[in-house]
Amino acid sequence: MPMSADSLDPPICDVFGWLMSSHAFQLNKHFYPTEPDFFIYDANGTQLFTPPECFDGPLGGQCMGIKGKPRDMWSLGCVLFVLAFGHCPFWAESNIELQLMIIQAELQLPEGGPGSHEFRQLVTSLLSRDPTARPSARALRQSPWLTLLLEPCRLRPSGLSQETYLALADVTLSDAAATSGTRLPAADRLLMVCPREDVSGRNSECPYAAEATAERSLASGLQTAAGAAALAVLWTLAPVMLACASLAGTRGRRMLDRPRIVRCAGAEEPAAEGSSGAEASKQQVVTPWEVEAGEDGVDYDKLIETFGCQPISAAQIERIERLTGKRAHRFLRRGLFFSHRDLDDLLDAYEKGEPFYIYTGRGPSSESLHLGHLVPFLFTKWLQEAFDVPLVIELTDDEKFLFKKDLGIDEARRLAWENAKDIIACGFDPAKTFIFRDTDYIGQLYPVALQIQKRVTLRTAQNTFGFTLSDNIGKCAFAAIQASPSFAISFPDFLKAGMRCFIPQAIDQDPYFRLCRRVADDLKWPKPALIHSKFLPALQGHQTKMSASVQSTALYMTDTPKKLRKKINKNAFSGGGKTLEEQQKYGANLDVDVSYQYLKIWLEDDEELAHIGTEYAAGRMLTGEVKRPGAFSALAVAQRRLV
């Protein structure tokens, strides 16, 4: 049975008949001749070399029918990039940021290094985001740059004809299996091209090549037998690439010395040595624990594309109004809730009379909720009333204890109850609402959490959330705890078994429930439907969300009306002109004006909001008028607090 090692490193391969075995500390993978392209269904390996279609999201969905060879070409392009320029084409602090960067980024070749047009064209084609646009192994071997460099350098091993060498470029183990008369299997041919004594990565003059290739697993990209042939070309090419890298001043450079990529809009290209992140424009970062927008604010269209969710349509809003007999909430009408997963399926079931329940929650990190926290709760209250359904609210005191270094367990539990007062003040139906604190209810959640934990690998948790070896193990385990309320079986005394779940949430929480939805089919439980909200911008600007961790950026429910007005007047970022003349001439940028964005959320009257927007954008209204106390009277209503 043909096999391939998890690490395609020629110096550690031996050949025994038709078996290609590896002495690496990874399991080998079988290739079945009946499978086209002998695709390995495995996600192990180094993400630095993984193509975008291997990650979750629309790229992965669109490329399910793409065979493995284009993935090999991407990984090969990454290695050539490393050998030429001394660093990886994409790099980030965490796995989840790296995945987002690979999916979103457009390749930028650094200045310096091999400067020929042919070489840059070759690397660019290998690192195309479109798998079908990447060259085949044969096309790679026949590319102008390789044709010019390989033959003069006589890199082809002696005794191997040009014809045989070219044939090797596209060889697969299926070729070897089909030609039973030959005594030269594909693995033998691979080793002929890459003899042990000729592996330049082991040369003392090339320490960087050894680290960049031999010590880096390419398994996530080299998923087919064709990958072996592609890597053969790489190993043959390595001496030339190292010579070019030496000329570019990267000779002997080690991986730990590579320039780090700052979080910027141009994060596809590493920051120059000695430059600071402040000198570059910001890159969008959205995780469950961090939100940092680009210069133009959060790009929600890009988040939809990256996360693989769907935008909410006008037809869906009209359908909600028809099914509930109520006008859509202003958060829906104005696009604050903007994307979803399986909303149509949930509405189909509701229309058939099938019940569902709502699940939302709060991670207590402050004495009081700020207005950004209120967005999902106020919308959830409307959903509960409109659909007349039960609601469960999770207070994740365990999460905050695990993720906040200086927070003790007793303090986390206390903050949970303080936050519960603000949540209750929103006006949920007491008979149909169950609020619980994780540390109190864990006995009921734990059996469900165990089922989820058993089906989620550590690698999946790392890839989804970006956990590192320095993170405590409780962080990994918590993902299953937060996912457990998504299944009605967690609440046997409150809900009917098998009920569907509907989860209103901010878009940064989506990774938790993507993971939850993955295991639902295996557990034979209904997948939760999700609806995502945008972020309430911080007072200082639209480049980050309002956060309880930075009190100066937030408006709290405990703020007095006087304090609230003072914060808005003093700190709210203005999109208006710097002077009266500029404002009257150019008008205001409504997209970045924080006061106007708050009005979009809290001002109920659509006509008044439209009037303010028109006048302010045209320069006929000043920033001070937009910030007038009367316009924010809705905030006082939102401040109700249970005594």
From TrEMBL:
Principal place of residence: cytoplasm
Gene name per UniProt: WARS1
SUPFAM superfamilies according to UniProt: Nucleotidylyl transferase, Protein kinase-like (PK-like)
Keyword Protein biosynthesis: yes
UniProt family annotation: Belongs to the class-I aminoacyl-tRNA synthetase family.
Main EC class the enzyme belongs to: ligase
Subcellular location, record wording: Cytoplasm
The keyword Transferase is assigned to this record: no
InterPro entries: aa-tRNA-synth_I_CS, aa-tRNA-synth_Ic, Kinase-like_dom_sf, Prot_kinase_dom, Rossmann-like_a/b/a_fold, Trp-tRNA-ligase
Cellular component aspect of the GO annotation: cytoplasm
Record protein name field: Tryptophan--tRNA ligase, cytoplasmic
Natural source organism: Symbiodinium natans
Domain Protein kinase as annotated: residue spans: 1-146
Pfam family name, one: Pkinase
GO BP, one annotated term: tryptophanyl-tRNA aminoacylation
Keywords carried by this UniProt record: Aminoacyl-tRNA synthetase, ATP-binding, Cytoplasm, Ligase, Nucleotide-binding, Protein biosynthesis
EC number: 6.1.1.2
Gene Ontology molecular-function annotations: ATP binding; protein kinase activity; tryptophan-tRNA ligase activity
